[in-house]
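W.,

You were right to be curious about this one. When I first looked at the sequence I had no strong expectations either way, so I just let the prediction run and decided to look at it fresh. Below is the sequence, 475 residues in total, followed by the output.
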Amino acid sequence: MHRFDVIVVGGGTAGAIAAVAAARRGAHTCLVDGAGHLGGTCVALANITPFHNSRGEAVVQGLAQELVEHIGAQGGTRGKPHLPNFAGIGGSFTPVDPEAMKVALFQLAEAAGVELWLHTVMVDALTGGTTVTGVRAHNKSGPQTLSAKVVIDATGDADVAQRAGAAYVQDTPEAALNATLLFRVAGVDTDALIADARGAPHKFVLLSDPYLRQVKKLSPGQVMRERVSDIYDFPYIYLSNLVRDYVPRSDWGEWGITGEDKSEWGRLKPFGARFSIMPLPHRRDVVTLNVTSLTFDATDGAQRSRAEMEGLRQMQLALEILRRYVPGFARSFLHTVLPGVSVRASRRIVGEYELKRDDVENGARFADGIARGSYPMSVAVRPGVREHLFVRDGGDYDIPYRCLVPRDMDGLLVAGRCLSASREAIGSARMGAQCMAYGEAAATAAALAAERGVAPRAVDVATLRRALKEQKAIV
């Protein structure tokens, strides 16, 4: 039996930050993850977003901001790391070198004293009645039993909570946000891409948040003429409509296309309605593509395996389309296929409070707020098609501590996209910077609970919020 104060299961976006935060508060902390590196989806995306709302106000700082600065010290960010986002979907965009991020997270974990159990898979939760007391895991050394005063489930899929018997909800695959296989392409002439868009701004999604048009009085043409000269002036690109703007009608028959609507895209129908293109911080010729669209049950092992193969098939088709039709991609080539499909939605716990659509839209404030979000709610309209619902007046909202606390289970907190939230609300709160923010909050609460010998739900919220503020977090 290996004994700890805090065990974090999952070393992705939320879990890596959580482990560092818990260890820094003096908790003997273990981090369990099946991969050989930390960082999860943010490493795959090569960005941590968003740190700001549409008004330009910071909504995330604390350990997430420290991580960005640590990556920057290694040359892994732009000089000014948080870049403008004229797409209007999130107030800023923060590209990072993914390899520098891996190194930075290892350095932070080592300095804090986190005990890393990588290449280790959690197989079951240990419980005593309605209290989680640890996990069973397996690695090259065989079966492992780890006990803790508090366990943080940062698996994304609420695996620990589900194994322990905690209540959870899960949308049908058709109602949930699609998953995607991310990949990177090199040899891209991004100057040609931007030049084409400057002459035809309608090809890009611009100023989606109504606040930018109605209050800031910005217009797409003005932005492209006056503020965008290269890819780093507009680093979060959505192509508005691939078929309408790029595939000539003379080629529609080849692809089985019958119209501009996504439902009429023929062989291109599996793609997301919008192609997303994101540059690395110092390589304008290397971009991350978020274009594949995969609808499946992310908690079903067989379906997940088939999704990997379907993602590769869609990737190959996307490369052909990009090279043939999108300016700047003619001589591009495949650089990296990211390790595993990135999942946007699966299980969410039933917590002491469920973050709701109205909370996000209306910029709700809570007495137990421990983090803030500002990204619009991404909501699946049909497979591969999403709509965005924005926070009122370009603002932000609180994420309450109660969303991290399972309603019917002690000894357990969650961090990441498995927090307690409605289908709409999680479409906003799932973003990388937010996951890091409430990962830090969950870890701080876990360390306080372990130190004081109380259940996580009994942690004094005023003390927790004060501790987070001392750590320069925004609450």
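Here's what jumped out at me. Residues 183-204+240-337 form one domain. And, maybe more interesting for your project: The chain has a mean pLDDT of 96.

Coffee later to discuss?

I.
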